[in-house]
């Protein structure tokens, strides 16, 4: 098993890099083999060898179905499940006396879907509609930069969604949220559901101010029989930092939705929903009844069924993904081992350096007076102090797309394709599942948005606006950020001349090299064992990237 247990938090150590699976993978592109540089941790974190070894060697040999303590393996698995919950709660500075945590399928998306069921939102709205009682419709207040997961579940549950006013970057005006709460104080249920961090720009929400507003509202203005819930979407936050739910600044938070698959070592981890006990209505049946949620079932009538009193068991139907839940717990423990302060410090250094380099390149472009002008536009608040290390951008130049003001730019999918094909850099293009925020950031008028949707519904995916998103992960060294920056600069300079070699599929929005199909992969049991994935050594990375950049520049049109 890989040894990282002697690692001292805050001290750079090659053991971290050696444990990151795929950190030095060689990939095949239309332009030859490239050392990959993975810069899409915001979507999914890299597997970590230590965690894989623990699960494969120390957990799975003893793994069985939980919900039993009579057999040793069943007891082991049940204890592991309980340990995972306790460990996760401890990572948020709380425990089972005040909170519980459950696994929830696919990331924070699964957590939100489960949360709407726990709160019985659909039942509440249906009853309000049946009774023609508009005050019974739950009102949900969100920031402009919410992920679709914090929109769609509320939409389909029949809630009234209201976006809190913001500046042009999406930073919400806290006073507007306060006004909305008071304007709608006659509603039976009000919900404040906000992202701790944007998954597009990594801007941070001032949760402490939101907490203060809700605390004041609860203490002074909440009407008898009415409810207000404070929900935090921490999907894009917890890979960078940690929420202390025991401190005063977050004392009013009722639920937290988490995506551990975004963490280092978190691939295959379950989503997590953390709930305050006082926010959970134990007088109602479980949101997802099934085996494991009951104390006894002695007949077919509802009166002949008794559910478990412990919310952890009550909301854990069937056979839970115990390993995925335990993996999620290990990712938080790994963060602590590496050191949260160290992670934050390295991310801040990398983010500031990347931003500075991009601004310097933009200044170079201005001096050269390109026609049309070249510009690398980074979206979101320019104040790096209120952001983490995630950047979404577009490259302005002689591309095939235009923005809302008619300025030409390169299609973000084209940029992402070139970063992959020529440089081996793994990024993500699109709207990052944050469509309403995209409308704001890109300045798309309502009429234009309607036109775009019309074309999308006809099957033309190429018209979908968006950006290229990457991150400057805490493990990145300066030379890796330089490599990314130089790659972006190169595309801005000669990306136009490469467009004739690529073709756009209007139905998918994807760009591919002409006469060059996507690679095929075999996943069949009897074939996948023959797959060969080459790896470079860690001490070769700098030289690999230097040569790859040199080759790209020499072959530039």
UniProtKB/TrEMBL annotation:
SUPFAM superfamilies: PLP-dependent transferases. Residues 38-363 form the Aminotransferase class V domain. This is Aminotransferase class V domain-containing protein. InterPro entries: Aminotrans_V_dom, PyrdxlP-dep_Trfase, PyrdxlP-dep_Trfase_major, PyrdxlP-dep_Trfase_small. Gene3D superfamilies: Aspartate Aminotransferase, domain 1, Type I PLP-dependent aspartate aminotransferase-like (Major domain). Pfam families: Aminotran_5. Transmembrane segments: none annotated. The lineage of its organism: Eukaryota, Sar, Alveolata, Ciliophora, Intramacronucleata.
């Amino acid at each position: 098993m890989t040894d990282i247990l002697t690692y001292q938090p805050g001290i750079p150590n090659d053991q971290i890099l050696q444990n990151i699976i795929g950190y030095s993978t060689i990939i095949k592109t239309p332009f030859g083999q490239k050392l990959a540089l993975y810069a899409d941790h915001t979507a999914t974190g890299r597997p970590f060898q230590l965690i894989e070894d623990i699960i494969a060697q120390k957990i799975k040999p003893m793994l069985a179905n939980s919900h039993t303590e009579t057999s040793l393996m069943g007891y082991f698995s049940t204890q592991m499940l309980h340990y995972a919950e306790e460990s996760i709660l401890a990572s948020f500075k709380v425990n089972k006396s005040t909170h519980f945590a459950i696994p929830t399928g696919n990331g924070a998306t699964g957590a939100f879907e489960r949360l709407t069921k726990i709160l019985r939102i659909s039942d509440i709205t249906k009853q309000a509609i049946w009774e023609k009682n508009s005050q019974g419709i739950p009102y949900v207040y969100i920031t402009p930069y919410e992920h679709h997961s914090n929109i769609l579940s509320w939409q389909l549950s029949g809630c009234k969604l209201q976006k809190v006013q913001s500046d042009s970057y999406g930073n919400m005006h806290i006073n507007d949220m306060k006004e909305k709460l008071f304007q709608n104080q006659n509603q039976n249920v009000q919900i404040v559901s906000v992202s701790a961090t944007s998954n597009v720009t990594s801007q941070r929400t001032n949760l402490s101010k939101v907490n203060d507003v809700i605390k004041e509202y609860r203490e002074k203005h909440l009407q008898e029989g009415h409810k207000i819930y404070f929900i935090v979407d921490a999907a894009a936050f917890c890979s960078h930092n940690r929420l202390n739910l025991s401190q005063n600044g977050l004392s009013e938070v009722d639920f937290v939705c988490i995506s551990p698959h975004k963490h280092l070592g978190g691939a295959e981890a379950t989503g997590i929903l953390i709930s305050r006990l006082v926010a959970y209505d134990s007088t109602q049946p479980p949101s997802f009844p099934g085996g494991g949620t009951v104390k006894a079932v002695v007949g077919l009538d509802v009166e002949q069924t008794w559910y478990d009193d412990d919310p952890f068991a009550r909301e854990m139907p069937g056979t839970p993904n115990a390993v995925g839940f335990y993996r999620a717990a290990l990712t938080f423990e790994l963060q602590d081992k590496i050191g949260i302060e160290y992670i934050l410090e390295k991310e801040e250094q990398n983010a500031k350096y990347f931003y500075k380099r991009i601004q310097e390149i933009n200044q170079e472009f201005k001096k050269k007076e390109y026609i049309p002008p070249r510009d690398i536009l980074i979206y979101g608040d320019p104040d790096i102090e209120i952001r983490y290390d995630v950047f979404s951008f577009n490259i302005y130049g002689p591309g095939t797309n235009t923005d809302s003001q008619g300025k030409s730019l390169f299609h973000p999918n084209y940029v992402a394709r070139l970063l992959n094909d020529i440089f081996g850099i793994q990024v993500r293009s699109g709207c990052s599942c944050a469509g309403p925020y995209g409308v704001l950031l890109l300045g798309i008028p309502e009429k234009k948005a309607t036109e775009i949707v019309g074309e999308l519904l006809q099957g033309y995916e190429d018209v979908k606006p968006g950006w290229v998103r990457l991150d400057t992960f805490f493990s990145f060294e300066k030379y890796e950020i330089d490599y990314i920056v130089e790659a972006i600069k190169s595309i801005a300079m000669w990306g136009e001349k490469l467009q004739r070699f690529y073709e756009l599929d209007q139905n998918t929005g994807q760009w591919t090299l002409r006469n060059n199909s996507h690679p095929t992969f075999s996943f069949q049991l009897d074939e996948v064992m023959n797959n060969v994935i080459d790896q470079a050594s860690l001490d070769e990375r700098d030289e690999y990237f230097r040569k790859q950049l040199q080759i790209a520049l020499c072959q530039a049109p």
